[in-house]
Amino acid sequence: MTLASLVLVILASFIHAGWNLLAKRAASVGPVFVFAYNLVACVAYAPWVMHLLAEGTIGWTPEGIGFVLASGLIHLAYSLCLQRGYQVAELSVVYPVARGTAPMLSTIGAILILGEAPTGQGLAGMALVVVGIGLIAAQGDLSAFRRPGGEAGVRWGTLTGGLIASYTVVDAYVVKALGIAPVILDWFSNLLRFFMLLPLVLAKPTRTLEPMRGYWWIAISVGLLSPLSYILVLAALTVGAPLSLVAPMREMSMMAGALMGMLILRETVGPWRLAGYAVLIGGVVILSAG
Question: Are 248 and 284 in contact, with CB atoms under 8 Å apart?
């Protein structure tokens, strides 16, 4: 991996943790917030996309269009699940669980769907991910899972992680194999999400947008930062960085997100959770290396 690729991935990780912190602050708004920041993203990045399209360097094929549509649908489900997770649980639980389960679920999918033989390294990595998630969610007290809503953060984080694993593979194929520019892929994905959520707003515009009062500045920030963080990752892949290295390096955002939750949102991040983050990151690195 070149120095440029390394810088792109590190910068993307911290930007990613930052916009998730902002999304957590707007958790109460729900799907309308997703609509709002997708609208911002579509408007803000349109000039760049139009410029690339005008150059005519992208050869659209039925395969390319199909994969872009698939990416948009997966990203829509991801956005809604993540926002719901932030409604019912803490950032310092949902965020690392989502980021950590993605490579684990990818490994499980390779075993169950593709028939790949499980390796000792892969099983060890999955075990560490599970242990790390348990430490993060329960903080050393297993009775936490029996309390009302105690498992909510793990459930929504895991579902979000599965969607992350899905769009990571799809999008890597689009930019590396089909040669579609990262910003174009991300913009059309945002555009699809915008139109799929638009009926929700048009049904009762005034009533639906009312919860956004006071949150538009957050939507603008997320609309600018969310695409940027992902475009940087896709750009690193485009210039030759291997997915097997980019994926685990992105997980440094887990620790950044945990620290933001502790310092800014005043969430409880004690020694058990910190140990859980370390174990989880270790498991992700082992899985990715395998």
Answer: yes
* pLDDT tens-place string over residues 237-274: 777 777 666 766 676 777 677 777 777 877 777 787 78
pLDDT at 14: 86
Quote the pTM value: 0.81
Whole-number Å distance between alpha carbons of 40 and 259: 27
For 156-214, how does the pLDDT look when each residue is reduced to its tens digit (9 = 90+)?
Answer: 888 998 898 888 888 888 888 888 888 889 899 999 999 999 998 888 888 888 889 88
Whether the CA torsion 22, 251, 99, 265 is positive or negative: it is negative
Closest to 220 measured CA to CA, from 18, 46, 40, 28: 40
Q: How many CB atoms lie within 10 A of CB 219?
A: 24
Q: Which residues of 68-87 are buried (b: 16+ CB within 10 A; e: fewer)?
A: bebbbbbbbbbbbbbbbbbb
Q: How far is CA 128 from CA 67, 71, 272, 275, in A?
A: 33, 29, 14, 11
